[in-house]
## 1
Amino acid sequence: MNEISENYKRIVESVEKARKDFKRDDKVRIMAVTKGVAYEKVNHAIELGINLLGENRAQEFLQKHPFYSKKAKIHFIGGLQNNKVKYIIDKVSVIESADSVKLLSEINRRAAAHSLTMDVLVEINIGCEWSKNGIEAGLLPGLLAEADALENVRLRGLMAIPPIDAGEQIYADMQRLYEDARAQVKQPDKFDTLSMGMSGDYITAIKHGANIIRIGSALFGSR
Ligand SMILES: *Cc1c(COP(=O)(O)O)cnc(C)c1O
């Protein structure tokens, strides 16, 4: 547990340094990614001041969720099958991994059934890797137009997992895509989130406008 505390301190310091270095005066939120991490450790991170959790796997999330401290918001960040939406819809505040009209329609339908509006990020497969979730950048304008028509879905921004060996241009491309998307959507003032950067690349991501960084191993230790 001590290790988590030291890791967290180190991450906060380097985020603050990056914000100064890159003249980012807006906020950068640190998300704790919980896959494979026991709920006790997750709650410890929340006690240290983490107020945002990232969940990858619906089933693991549903098992741990009852034991989580209620002080943190939860974002779903993993590949999401249509038939799992109903289980998580009332337990998360943002679905970051929306990547098809079909999935967005199901989120819309289930959100309506709970009389809520679900905040979503569209996941972009920015490295065009066949193994990754997310839509191709070129398909984004069409997807945004369709999502804007859904009453119980609110478009809040974009999410991406740049390839391991991505050069800086990929991050710059992602920032550009985010800005173009904001110029397109119906409610640009609500479109305010760029979720990008993990343990190995969050400094580069902050340089290119990320305002949520998703941290697993640098916080909890390697999986
Ligand atoms: C696992 C995971 C992370 C965190 O990865 P680390 O390299 O351990 O920080 C972030 N985002 C997603 C979508 C993940 O699956």
## 2
Amino acid sequence: MTAGTAQDSARLLAALAAAAEDRIVFDLTGIEERYEALRRELPGVDVRFAMKACPVDEVLACLAGKGAGVDGASPRELEQALRAGVPVGRTHYGNTVKSDRDIADAHRLGVRDFATDSLEDVAAIAAHAPGARVFCRLATSGEGALWGLSNKFGCSPEDAVRIMEAARERGLVPSGLSVHVGSQQMTADAWRSAVECLADVLAVLRRRGIVLSHVNLGGGLPALGYLDRFGTPLDPPLDKIFAVIREGMRHLRKAHGQDLQFVLEPGRHLVADHGAIRTHVARLAKRRGPDGERQYWLYLACGKFNGLYELDALQYRLVFPTHPEAALVPAVVAGPTCDSDDAYPQEHGLVHVPKDLASGDPVWVLSSGAYAISYTTQGFNGFDPLPYAFTREERS
Ligand SMILES: *Cc1c(COP(=O)(O)O)cnc(C)c1O
């Protein structure tokens, strides 16, 4: 198996098969193994899990047990991470958007590292977390990613220099630079360009007497088991991405000292392929659309508002365990709510599903462990959030 292949663990499939009711199952051993694989690929990198991808106590605890830190985006998230056993020194406040109160609350929790991208935010950190370390987020294009995350976050290289100088003037410690190349980034080039930009800003800052201790290469590492909008495996070039990151680290250390530290904030990469949903068929129906054409629709009990939020940009792998050899028909897949966005968009390809699916038949949604819990509503239309279940390797 290459690093870039999706692998559904027998444990996870067995847990899905054993589930008589709908649930989301996390394979904790799979998550630990993915973390360890990442550490092997990028030795010496400080991995801080972007917990919004899976804010589940058991998942945080298993990663904390392996030594992972956490990238938190609010005092509540950071508090949850600390409760799960992450040492406060291995956390940072990675959100550039925060109120005065958020900063003060995080500071009270003991958090001493804050992301920033504006002079206003630096002034607020200086006031409410005096003496803290700050790292400045540089904007990226988001090109090559399924979700770009550009625009709202990060600043230009010129502004980064101004912001870090302002931080120093206000008694903060300018400690690093960060980027996020966009979520589910599919190209190694995104990291190559990010490193070039980081190198330039590090050099300018050094000339102004600001020597940074770390570079945070953010999240964006892909999940392996998604299909694109037309149903073809996305197949991200993970080995190449790791090679480019290693090369980038070598390059930056050569220019800025061997003691330059690296941080990574993977979210979906650690959890997506190790979580899966057991749901069921609400109905397979054939309806005439506005164009007069008849079309199959597969309505699942699970959709955009209770586990499959990202169905607007990808297709999930579906398994129909009770119909392994059935005749298939092309269908639009949709969730159960009264919201028309709760469906694969028109532009998506159709999904081939067994023709004789009956209401209640189980359906497994693979590689759905990331951003499922965090984007679940409080029972929109009365469709409750999925209960969690866990599986892990039995240790003798
Ligand atoms: C969401 C987020 C991440 C994780 O992104 P993934 O694409 O899931 O890896 C990392 N860092 C920050 C600051 C984020 O907001």
